[in-house]
Every structure is written in structure tokens, then in C-alpha cells.
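In the previous chapter we treated chains in isolation. Here, by contrast, the input contains two separate entities that must be folded as one system, with a combined length of 225 residues.
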Amino acid sequence: AQSVTQPDIHITVSEGASLELRCNYSYGATPYLFWYVQSPGQGLQLLLKYFSGDTLVQGIKGFEAEFKRSQSSFNLRKPSVHWSDAAEYFCAAFSGGYQKVTFGTGTKLQVIP
Amino acid sequence: DAGVTQSPTHLIKTRGQQVTLRCSPKSGHDTVSWYQQALGQGPQFIFQYYEEEERQRGNFPDRFSGHQFPNYSSELNVNALLLGDSALYLCASRQRDTDTQYFGPGTRLTVL
């Protein structure tokens, strides 16, 4: 079955520190991959996406993600976290067409001063 | 350019009632999907509409039904509400030939 796994439920980092959120997928073929961010009570905002090509993708708000086929991973990174980055982050995968988007269970990021 | 809009923002219902949630897709988008997000969980796919037809469905009972109108807007209907239907309901839209979904702000449904 298709699945997306985010092994870290909750992560706490200090403001200015670097961040890496993990995401692993299990699909028959390499899916399209996304990272979304959700502030409390809000909808999902697209941070970045990977379809093909360069395995390092840049997104909004200074985020980037690296696709590693050998590890079936698509980890999200940011070199220096800001307090406003505190939110929940969802990794998602999609195999195209009429197929559904499968989400991970999310990682809640807390940023401490 | 307006993004995906949903109404209402919040809704409180009692068990057994019926509810209708509405979604207007982003301009130029013709495919609408609905998701249920329970507290502390990731969004779960309910169904997807294109050309006014349900094209794909997740593991939700028939109490969950939908509709897409000629202007691409969509409704989600839930009958015989259960306490467990309390969740944030998200609508997402995309253009058929693209693969990126954009989400609305959601409707928070509380069933008492």
C-alpha cells in the first residue's frame, strides 16, 4: 500500500538553529512529492514540490528539500529557523492523474528563543 | 487572484444531522478534492471531482457524498453525522494537467 511516513511527531529547535524534518515514502514508482505547512486552525500552504530532475528543490520561506531515491526519502531543511516557522509540517506524495494525495501524519515544530 | 475558498468557516451540528460544506476552487482549476483532517492527524482523502463526476474515492462510507457544479465549485455532504465526523474539512483544487494541489482554509465541523 502507498504510504508516507514522518517519524518525528514533535521537534523543538532553538531560533537560529538548523532544521531537518524527515519524510519517507513507500510507492510502487517514484511519486510526486510535496511539503506543506499548516498553522493552527488553518489550511495547508505549499512549501515546495519535487517532480523530477534536480534532487535538491528550493521552496518558499527559505526551505529546501532533498530527494534521495535510494533511501525513499524527501527531507525538508532550513539553515536557520525563525520563530514564525513554528507550525505543523506535512509531507505528501501523489502518483498523478486521478490518484489521491497521501499525507504523512505531520511533524509539529516548536521554536524556542 | 483568489485562492481556494471554503464556507462556512465553522459549523456545529448534533449527531444524526446532515451538513453541507462548500468549496470554490482557485481560478483556472477544474479538479477538486476533499480531505478530512482529524485533530492531530494528517489529512485523509475523501474523494475527487472532475467534470462533475467523482473520479476517485478514499475509504469513507456512503454517508459522505459530493457534487461538482459546472463552474467547478463543489459541495461535500455528510449525512447521519457521528461524533467521529468532527474534524477540519479541507478542499483542494488543481488544474487537471498539473499535479500541484492548492488548499483552502478549511471548515471546522464540530458534532455534539
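The longest strand of chain B covers residues 87-94. The radius of gyration of chain B is 13 Å. Compare these points with the single-chain example from earlier in the chapter.
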